[in-house]
Amino acid sequence: MKTEQTMRVAVFESYKKGADAHKSIHLDTRAVPEPRANELLVRVHMTSLNAADGLLLQGSPWVIRMSQGVFRPRKENRVLGSDLVGKVVACGSPEDRHLIGSMVMADVSDSGRGSLAEYIRIPRSTSIVISDEISLESAAALPLAGSTALQALRNKLAISTGERILILGASGGVGHLAVQLARNIGCIVCAVCSEKNIELAKKSGAAEVFDYRKINIIEQSELLGSFNSVLDVASSYTMAEIEPLLADGGKYVRIGGSLKRLFGVMFGGKRFGKKTKKSFGTYLQKVDLSDLETLVELLVGGHLTPHIDAVYPLENVQEAFRYFIEEHPQGKVLISCL
Ligand SMILES: NC(=O)c1ccc[n+]([C@@H]2O[C@H](COP(=O)([O-])OP(=O)(O)OC[C@H]3O[C@@H](n4cnc5c(N)ncnc54)[C@H](OP(=O)(O)O)[C@@H]3O)[C@@H](O)[C@H]2O)c1
User: Fold this and answer.
1) Which of 15, 40, 293, 304 is deepest in the core (most CB within 10 A)?
2) Whose CA is nearest to atom 9 of ligand 1?
C-alpha cells in the first residue's frame, strides 16, 4: 500500500501547567516512520484523549518527569496519544503482510504512545483487528479507558450480580464505561460526578447519582447505605473517610486522582485493610488484547456504548486539550486524524 512521505503530528516541547497547558502542543511535520520487525505502520483514523495525556503535557505530578524528561519531554516522548483506531498500511515482518489493509484498534499506552499523528509505528502485539463496520468513534473511545474500567471491576473488585457498587468519578472516560460494565453484570450502581454530568451517569445505568459539589457523600452514609465495592477514579477522600461506606468484607480500589492519595492506598492500603477487615488497593491498567476483544464484543452486542462528548480534527488539537483539561467533558473526547 502506498503511503505519503511526511505526516502531520501533534508535538509538545515543554511542560506547561494550568490554564495554558494546551498552548504547548502544536502541529508539526515529520517523516512517516518505517515499521521495524514485528511492527505495523498504521494510518491513524481516530484517537482519544486520556487523563494521562493531560498529565504528561503538564509534566505533573513530578514523578512523570522521571521517565519522560526532567526539564522538558525527551524527543521520543513528545507525541502524546495512548490509543487509536486506524488502517494498517505497511509491516516490518513478512508474516504480517496479511494485515495490510485491515482496520486495527490499539493501546500504545505502554509502548511509547504517539497516536496524535497521521501515522504511527506500533508493535504488532498492541493491536487487534476490528471489522470495518464498527463505528470509528466508539472503537477509538475504548482501548485505554474501557480496559481500565473492565480490569479494575473484574480483576481487582471481582464484582458480581446484585452487589451494590459506588463509582466516584462516574462521568469521565473511565467512569461512564465502568458504570455501564457494572450495570451489565447486574450490580446496583451509585454514581458520583458533577451536576452537569448527572444525566450521562443515569443514562449509563446508575440507579442513583450524587453531585459531589452539593453532597459530601462521607457525611451522607445513612442516605447512601453500604457498598460491596467502591471504584474511585477521583480520589477525593481518604481511606478512613471511605471505610464506613463499605459493607463487611467490602473492596475499595483507587485508580486515579492525586498522587498523594494514590500513594496513600498503595503503601498503606494493605495494613488498613487488615485492621478493618476490608480490602483497599490501587490498580494500574495493563495492555491486554483479550480485554480489547471483550470490549469490542460488548460494543457490537450493544452492551457498551461509549459517550462521545466531542470530536476535534487534528489541526484543532490545542483547543481539544483546552476543552479536555478545563471543561469536565462527558465521556470521551476524540481526535480525528483523517
Ligand atoms: N490506574 C490506571 O491504570 C488508570 C488508567 C486510566 C486512567 N486513570 C486515571 O483515572 C482518572 C480518571 O480518568 P478519566 O479518563 O476517566 O478522567 P476524566 O475523564 O477527567 O474523569 C474524571 C471523573 O472524575 C469526576 N470528578 C472530579 N472531581 C471529583 C470529585 N471531587 N468527586 C467525585 N468525582 C469527581 C469527574 O466528574 P465531573 O467531570 O462531572 O466533574 C469525572 O467523572 C485519572 O486520574 C486518570 O489518571 C488511571
Assistant:
1) 40
2) 256
d(CA 330, CA 328): 7
User: Where, residue-wise, is CATH 3.40.50.720 in the chain?
Assistant: 148-282
Whole-angstrom CA distances from 337 to 1, 51, 105, 204 are: 19, 19, 14, 28
CA of 84 to the centre of ligand 1 (A): 20
What gap in Å lies between CA 4 and CA 248, rounded to an integer?
A: 60
Coil vs helix vs strand at 114: coil
Number of other CB atoms surrounding residue 162 within 10 Å:
10
Could you tell me if the CB of 197 is within 6 A of ligand 1? yes
Nearest to 288, CA basis, from 156, 144, 174: 144
Q: For the domain 148-282, what is the CATH superfamily, name and number? A: NAD(P)-binding Rossmann-like Domain (3.40.50.720)
DSSP string, 122-172: EEGGGEEEE-TTS-HHHHHHSHHHHHHHHHIIIIIS---TT-EEEEES-SS
Determine whether the shortest distance from the Cβ of 50 to ligand 1 is under 6 A: yes
Query: Phi and psi (nearest 5°) for 32?
Result: -65, 130
Q: Residue with C-alpha cell 481500565? A: 148
Phi and psi at residue 228, in whole multiples of 5°?
Answer: -75, -30
- Residue 194 Cβ < 6 Å to ligand 1: yes
Ligand 1 pocket test target in 109, 233, 286 with most atoms within 8 Å of CB = 233
Q: How far is the CA of 48 from the centre of ligand 1 (A)?
A: 15
Q: Is 141 in the pocket of ligand 1 (CB under 6 A)?
A: no
* Domain 6-142+306-336 CATH assignment equals 3.90.180.10: yes
pLDDT, tens only, 173-231 = 999 999 999 999 999 999 999 999 999 999 999 999 999 999 998 888 888 899 999 99
The CA radius of gyration of the chain, in Å to the nearest whole number, is 20
